Amino acid sequence: MLITVAIVGITGVSVAVTPQKEPVSVALTANKLTQNAQGITVAQPVTKVKPNDVIEYRAVYTNNTGKAIKNLTATLPIPPATQFLAKSTPSATLASTDGVNFAAMPLKRKVGNQIVNVPLQDYRALRWTIAEVPAGKSVSVSAQTRVNSVTP
């Protein structure tokens, strides 16, 4: 945090605290996706959800510096009461069942002597490597999920 001290006249001192911006800031939004009468997908901010609602989570990463940031790792968690729908942007996505170990999709695991796809309901996080975010610019990543159940 940067603290700026300014002298006011002869009799007083004021202290202004100016928070220093992080090199990269992130804003996360959640929108419910529905279809209007014309069949166009409409996104509205989530206020409440019910089972089977489709929610798009979007994270916008902003470069607050004066130079490009290279190889930005963007991670987006998949909430527990939802199932990933295999729709994400950008498409070169890594996935994880534990939020720690990531691999290319579709995730695989060994069951007995067979290698099988991990069910989408087990995906708990997605990750992208953004090659470059230009100075002062933003990039976004997103994923669509379906609500499984409403937790009390």
Could you explain how this protein is built, in words?
- This is Repeat protein.
- By secondary structure, the chain is mostly beta strands.
- Helix content is 0%, strand content 59%.
- The strands form four sheets. Strands 4-3-5-13-7 form a five-stranded antiparallel beta sheet, with no helix packed on it. It has a four-stranded antiparallel beta sheet with strand order 6-12-8-9, with no helix packed on it.
- Please state the second-level CATH architecture: Sandwich
**Shape label:** globular
> Which structural class do you get from the secondary structure elements?
mainly beta
Tell me the number of structural domains.
1
Secondary structure layout plus pairing:
Layout: E1 2-8, E2 12-18, E3 24-35, E4 41-45, E5 54-63, E6 69-77, E7 82-89, E8 94-96, E9 103-104, E10 108-111, E11 114-117, E12 125-133, E13 138-147
Antiparallel strand pairs: 1-2, 3-4, 3-5, 5-13, 6-12, 7-13, 8-9, 8-12, 10-11
